[in-house]
């Protein structure tokens, strides 16, 4: 008997993307509510308690409320909101985080799906902090650009037909309190908040996150080759997270992995005349793929013991 899956919030950008990846699969049964009762609390509660896995694609407060409605201990939950990403009792849904994380996700009743900026940042930071190349108390800066789909319906409409229809690019989060920062700090292994500066461009989806490193300021003054080797070792054999070889690219485009569940890391380097090395680690991904719905489907597959790449 196939597992029954309910997407609460299936009409939003992430929900629609998840639904498109799940439709037509024979190993699960995708269920939903009629439009007339989609927002009815009683109908939602009944559905949430009747399925094997509930996927929440809701604003943070609504996701917390939905979890509170679930009293059936057999129901597993994947929350795509920010609400539970650093909460106790929730597994973090980045399967490639370390060697044990798949098992943590597989055994979990509650899984918090990573944020797009966050999973890119953590994919770079966690291995380097874990292996001691970046100290946990290091001052970390992250710069990023995303397609406008990451901002939800309002931003999508703004770029496609609204006030930003002629805007090529803008920087935001200028209060330095982007909602992904606590998640990056916690799962990146950092003692201090990273300085995170996001931006959005006039393209629908795709993302690059940059981690600049002054190698001469790190303990042991590692080379760019050391950084790349540490990342390659951490992600060896992974299906969806890969590390590009040295010199593979002379330019990087945020839309390069659109339509996939891939996350690819690059290390670009420059060496000063006195050996004062610099490097920039960059993560490229589809903010709607590995940064949202693709990651969610991957976590669902792991939780149900199915082929991890099904639907991806």
Summary, kept brief:
The protein is of the alpha/beta class. Helix content is 30%, strand content 22%. The model has no long low-confidence stretch (mean pLDDT 94).
Structure description:
The structure is a single chain. By secondary structure, this protein is an alpha/beta fold. It folds into 2 domains: 3-114 and 292-304, NAD(P)-binding Rossmann-like Domain (Rossmann fold, 3-Layer(aba) Sandwich); 116-287, Dihydrodipicolinate Reductase, domain 2 (2-Layer Sandwich), CATH 3.30.360.10. The chain has helices at residues 13-22, 41-48, 60-69, 101-107, 116-130, 152-160, 181-188, 224-234, 289-304, and strands at residues 3-8, 28-31, 53-56, 76-79, 91-92, 110-112, 141-147, 169-171, 195-201, 207-214, 241-243, 263-271, 277-285. A 7-stranded mixed beta sheet has the order 8-9-7-10-13-12-11. β1 (3-8), α1 and β2 form a beta-alpha-beta unit. α4 crosses α9. The longest helix has 16 residues, at 289-304. The radius of gyration is 20 Å and the shape is globular. The chain starts with a strand and ends in an 8-residue tail after the last helix. 46% of the residues are buried. The model has no long low-confidence stretch (mean pLDDT 94).
The major beta sheet can be summarized as: 7 strands, mixed
Q: Per CATH, what is the topology of the largest domain?
A: Dihydrodipicolinate Reductase, domain 2
What is the tally of helical segments?
A: 9
Number of strands: 13
Number of domains: 2
- How many angstroms separate the termini? 22 Å
> CATH homologous superfamily of the largest domain, by name?
Dihydrodipicolinate Reductase, domain 2
Strand order of the largest sheet: 8-9-7-10-13-12-11
Can you name the CATH architecture of the largest domain?
2-Layer Sandwich
């Amino acid at each position: 008997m196939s597992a029954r899956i309910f997407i609460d919030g299936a009409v939003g950008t992430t929900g629609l993307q998840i639904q498109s990846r799940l439709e037509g699969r024979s190993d699960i049964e995708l269920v939903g509510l009629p439009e007339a009762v989609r927002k009815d609390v009683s109908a939602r509660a009944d559905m949430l308690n009747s399925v094997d896995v509930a996927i929440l694609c809701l604003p943070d407060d609504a996701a917390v409320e939905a979890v509170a409605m679930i009293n059936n201990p057999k129901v597993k939950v994947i929350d795509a909101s920010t609400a539970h990403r650093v909460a106790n009792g929730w597994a973090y849904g980045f399967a490639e985080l370390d060697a044990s994380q798949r098992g943590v996700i597989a055994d979990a009743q509650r899984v918090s799906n990573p944020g797009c900026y966050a999973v890119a940042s953590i994919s770079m930071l966690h291995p380097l902090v874990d292996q001691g190349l970046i100290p946990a108390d290091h001052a970390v800066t992250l710069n990023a650009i995303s397609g406008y789909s990451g901002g939800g319906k309002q931003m999508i409409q703004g770029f496609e037909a609204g006030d930003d229809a002629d805007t090529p690019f803008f920087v935001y989060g200028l209060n330095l309190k982007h909602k992904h920062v606590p998640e990056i700090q916690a799962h990146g292994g950092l003692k201090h908040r990273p300085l995170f500066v996001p931006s959005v461009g006039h393209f629908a989806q795709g993302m690059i996150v940059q981690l600049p490193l002054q190698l001469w300021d790190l303990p042991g003054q590692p080379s760019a080759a050391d950084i790349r080797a540490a990342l390659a070792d951490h992600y060896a054999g992974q299906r969806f997270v890969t590390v590009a070889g040295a010199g593979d690219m002379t330019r990087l485009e945020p839309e390069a992995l659109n339509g996939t569940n891939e996350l690819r890391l690059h290390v670009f380097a420059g060496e000063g005349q006195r050996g004062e090395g610099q490097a920039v680690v960059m993560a490229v991904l589809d903010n709607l793929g590995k940064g949202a719905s693709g990651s969610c489907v991957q976590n669902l597959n792991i939780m149900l013991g199915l082929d991890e790449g099904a639907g991806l």
